């Protein structure tokens, strides 16, 4: 059956559907960057809350700021914004149709429709999933005021190019109308993601309207949050899987049988009671997010990078490779866990075992290519902070540095079997040129300040990098992995 509002009451047997009436919902959230993760995570929590007869005035309007977002809008509007979520549990797959999203704002170059909707008093949360690299950060983590997009929005605040510029324009309109501020909520995998979102929004607003920037800083809220659920990209296999459940869905989402959402309770205009469906509100998000980002997200890069080089197509496949799994466990236990604090009901070493099980799930067809994408953001965001802490503390770094050397080798653009690695980073051309140069001069790789900041000047890091890089060049990836495991 085609997934539509007309058909939603007649879902195939075994498919869980909404237990609320869609025509009774009204919008309270605009979500910018409406990809798979959002629909498997925030939208699911809201959907389950609506199932309890709650949060009926908190439905989601999808939004995007890129021309490519229009295609996603067309796909979702064609099925009345319903999504089929397929849980990939090793014990058996299950499907659920969620309906917490009720519309998708028109995508326009000047973001006029988006600004107009965010300006409405009924919208009390504007949330984002724009990827780790989408917050206009400098290599040191500050606000990059020199980026062309930022310069454009500072000079043209009425016709912004970025999501942040659109948010600022809407907040200005709300201040003038008396509607008041909305909560700005990041749902991206960034440590202190709310603080980073505040830095970007307030930093951009300051460039064109310091008084407005001060008002936003004083009145809007930016809760930090930790988000967690493994959600593969959608391709032909996922479309086929939806059909096997009896549903024609143009944009189904598959996900693992695990979710976690830990949020600061800082919402200036109210919020849904997500804690009634499993989310955690706390004043100490930092410990949770540090554990997840340093162990799970960094762990993904630890296994995906050699996985690409050794032509292992999936994350589960990397965990079935003894050398890659050995690398993962040794780095996690010896080099990362010492820099991670215990959270309620979970130690760093227990979390290693949990991640091991999740990454090894054979039902999750999560590609190494997807996980290795945008290494320039993910290495600097997930791995380099641990390296800095380890260097400062004088603790072990060899495995972390080996992963950096493997990343340099990956960016040469070929696998160990000679096959081509297609461009897989927004800065691929520069990374590829530097990786080829580093074959004869390893220091050239870690001198990339946009990725490493001042790390390349640390003698201990540079010496370890040169050692591993040289071994990979002379003997290959597997020999380097074995040497590390034997050390």
From TrEMBL:
Residues 284-467 form the Mannitol dehydrogenase C-terminal domain. Residues 28-276 form the Mannitol dehydrogenase N-terminal domain. It comes from the Bacteria. It is an enzyme of class 1 (oxidoreductase). The keyword Oxidoreductase applies. The lineage of its organism: Bacteria, Pseudomonadati, Pseudomonadota, Alphaproteobacteria, Rhodobacterales. GO terms for molecular function: mannitol 2-dehydrogenase activity. This is Mannitol 2-dehydrogenase. Keywords: Oxidoreductase. Its EC number is 1.1.1.67. It comes from Octadecabacter temperatus. The keyword Oxidoreductase applies.
């Amino acid at each position: 059956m085609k997934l539509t509002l007309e058909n939603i009451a007649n879902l195939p047997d075994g498919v869980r559907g909404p237990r609320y009436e869609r025509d009774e919902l009204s919008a309270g959230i605009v979500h910018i960057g409406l990809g798979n993760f959002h629909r498997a995570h925030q939208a699911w929590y809201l959907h389950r809350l609506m199932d309890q007869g709650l949060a009926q005035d908190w439905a989601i309007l999808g939004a995007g700021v890129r021309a490519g977002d229009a295609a996603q809008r067309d796909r979702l509007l064609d099925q009345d914004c319903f999504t089929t979520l397929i849980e990939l549990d090793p014990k058996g797959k299950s499907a659920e149709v969620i309906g917490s999203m009720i519309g998708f704002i028109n995508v326009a170059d000047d973001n006029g429709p988006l600004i107009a909707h965010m300006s409405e008093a009924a919208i009390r949360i504007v949330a984002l999933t724009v990827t780790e690299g989408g917050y206009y950060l400098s290599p040191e983590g500050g606000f990059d005021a020199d980026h062309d997009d930022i310069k454009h929005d500072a000079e043209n605040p009425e016709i912004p190019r970025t999501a942040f510029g659109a948010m600022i324009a809407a907040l200005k309109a709300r201040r003038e109308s008396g509607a008041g501020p909305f909560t700005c909520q990041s749902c991206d995998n960034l440590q202190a993601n709310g603080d980073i979102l505040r830095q970007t929004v307030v930093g951009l607003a300051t460039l064109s309207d310091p008084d407005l920037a001060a008002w936003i800083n004083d009145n809007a809220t930016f809760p930090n949050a930790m988000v967690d659920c493994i959600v593969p990209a959608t391709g032909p296999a996922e479309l086929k899987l939806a059909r096997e459940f009896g549903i024609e869905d143009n944009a189904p989402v598959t996900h693992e049988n695990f979710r976690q959402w830990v949020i600061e309770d800082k919402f200036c205009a109210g919020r849904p009671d997500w804690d009634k469906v499993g989310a955690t509100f706390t004043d100490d998000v930092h410990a949770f997010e540090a554990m997840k980002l340093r162990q799970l997200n960094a762990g993904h890069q630890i296994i995906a990078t050699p996985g690409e080089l050794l032509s292992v197509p999936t994350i589960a496949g990397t965990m079935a490779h003894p050398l890659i799994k050995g690398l993962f466990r040794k780095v996690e236990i010896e080099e990362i866990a010492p820099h991670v604090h215990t959270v309620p009901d979970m130690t760093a070493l227990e979390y290693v075992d949990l991640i091991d099980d999740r990454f090894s799930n054979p039902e999750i067809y999560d590609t190494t290519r997807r996980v290795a994408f945008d290494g320039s953001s993910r290495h600097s965001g997930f791995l380099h902070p641990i390296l800095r802490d380890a260097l400062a503390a004088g603790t072990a770094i060899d495995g972390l540095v080996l992963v950096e050397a493997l990343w340099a080798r990956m960016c040469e653009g070929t696998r160990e079997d000679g096959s081509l690695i297609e461009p897989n980073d927004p800065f691929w051309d520069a990374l590829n040129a530097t990786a080829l140069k580093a074959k004869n001069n390893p220091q050239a790789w870690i001198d990339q300040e946009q990725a490493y900041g001042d790390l390349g000047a640390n003698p201990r890091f540079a010496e370890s990098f040169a050692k591993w890089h040289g071994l990979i060049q002379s003997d290959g990836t597997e020999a380097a992995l074995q040497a590390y495991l034997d050390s």
